[in-house]
Structure formats: structure tokens, C-alpha cells
Amino acid sequence: AGHQAMQTGRVFHNGIEYPHLGCVLSRLLARREGLPAHVLLPGPIGGAGCGLPNGQTAGFLGREHDPVVVRPRYGDSPFGRNCLLACRLVEAGVRFVTVNMFQNLPGEITWDAHGVHPFGALDTCRDLVCPTFDAACSALLEDLDRRGLLETTLVVATGEFGRTPKINPSGGRDHWPGCWTVMMAGGGVRGGRLIGASDSTGAEPRDRPVTPAEIAATICRSLGIPPDLQLEAGPGRRIPLLDPGVRPVGELFRSAA
After folding, report:
1. What is the Cα–Cα distance from 120 to 139, expressed in whole angstroms?
2. Is residue 103 helix, strand or coil?
């Protein structure tokens, strides 16, 4: 009760959760150059044992005025922090942000799970890499959605290849360029869609294979870039952005245009 009174000026009463003063500021004043109006560091106050709100949310003003929380939801990892930064950059008006999950391969625990030193084993994907990605990516999508930005922001999560269908003698999986997965969200993409499928072992595409060029064309469509655009490469020389005839993955979008 003391936390709420000091940070909202009101005591929790009749079920009304009053807003933090920083959240009131978010409601009353425009943001400066796209920056968050209220940032909560290093994170929300934990439970005080009395079952009452701590006065650090927007309360009845609505979640769109909640403070920005920096670490817990995105995860305590460079990738999580960079996904949070990516969200803020998009909010500030940056048109395109690329986030590399890892910068180095040998000596780091990454998706490169060959199972032999200096690479990781398969259990590192289960215990570390996958949870790191899941926390950061889901928080990014949630934050973009809460801020009304997901509809106009295409989020693409992809690697450069898959992993071998069979475990190698070292207990890992090696590079496999024949079949892998790409995730897309926002930017006009319909959620919950599965385009294409692999065979039973994930070795080869079974139906509706999609090429890297089609992924590029899909990103171009979301950005409003014509797939047949030609770029100037010097006096009298123009090079097509994409190979002739490459089309976006139209099934992903809400409209067929």
C-alpha cells in the first residue's frame, strides 16, 4: 500500500488501480522524438506480501501507457537487449533494423550445435539458445503490438540453413541447406499460417518449397518496394533488385494484391 501511495498519490480503494505519475505523463504529453515517456529500471517491484498493486503501472489509463521495462521480458542476454533496442528504434522511426543473435560462432554457445568443441551440443539449444530466442522474440512482438506498430512492421526471424536430419557421431547436428524454417509476423502477414511442409525427417521440402529470393521478395512487398525494381550501378548500368520472375509468398498476406 505504501508503494502505491508514494508513486500514485492515491491509496488502492474499491478495486481501482491508480496510475503511476510517469504513466500519467505518458497520457498527457506527447513523446519526445518517439522515445518512451516512462522507463522503469531495472524492473517492476516484486510482491510485498500484501496482495495489493505496487503503483507502477498505468492502472485504469490502459496498458498503452505502462512504463517500458528494460530486462526481464526480453531476457538477460545481448540478443534480448538488442531486440528491445530494435523495438525502440522502430518506434522512433527507423525504417529497417537487423538484429544478429550471435556475432561469433567458435567459443560461443549458438545454434551451431555440431556437438564437438568449440561448438555446443544439442542440449544447449534446448536449455539456452531456444529459451533466449523465445523470450526476446515474443517480447518484441508483444511490445510492437501494444504500441500499434506491428501492423506496419514486418518481423522476420530466419537463419541461413537448417541442421542435418540425423545426429552426427559427436552428438550434434551439422549444416543442412536443403530445408529450414522462417518465421514472419506483422507487416500485413496473416498470423497462424503454415506455408509449405518438409518430409517426415525434415530433410527436404515436401510441398510448397520457398526460396531465399522469394523471402526477399516478400520483405519487399511488405515494405512497398516493387520486386522488379532496377538499381543504378553506375553510368548507363542498371541491375535488377531481384532475379526476373521472383514473386513474394502471396499466401502470407491478408489480401492477394
Report:
1. 26
2. coil
Type of residue found at 167:
I
Query: ∠ at Cα 9 (4, 14), nearest 5°?
Result: 65
pLDDT tens column, 117-168: 888 888 999 999 999 999 999 999 999 998 899 999 999 999 888 999 999 9
Tell me the one-letter amino acid at 226: P
Cell of 70: 528494460
Whether the CA torsion 184, 188, 191, 195 is positive or negative: it is: negative
CA–CA separation, 2 and 174 (whole Å): 56
C-alpha angle 254-99-223 in degrees, rounded to nearest 5: 35
pLDDT tens digit sequence for 42-92: 667 665 555 666 677 888 888 888 887 767 889 989 999 999 989 988 988
Q: How far, in Å, are 71, 129, 135, 155 from residue 76 at the CA level?
A: 6, 12, 10, 21
pTM for this entry = 0.76
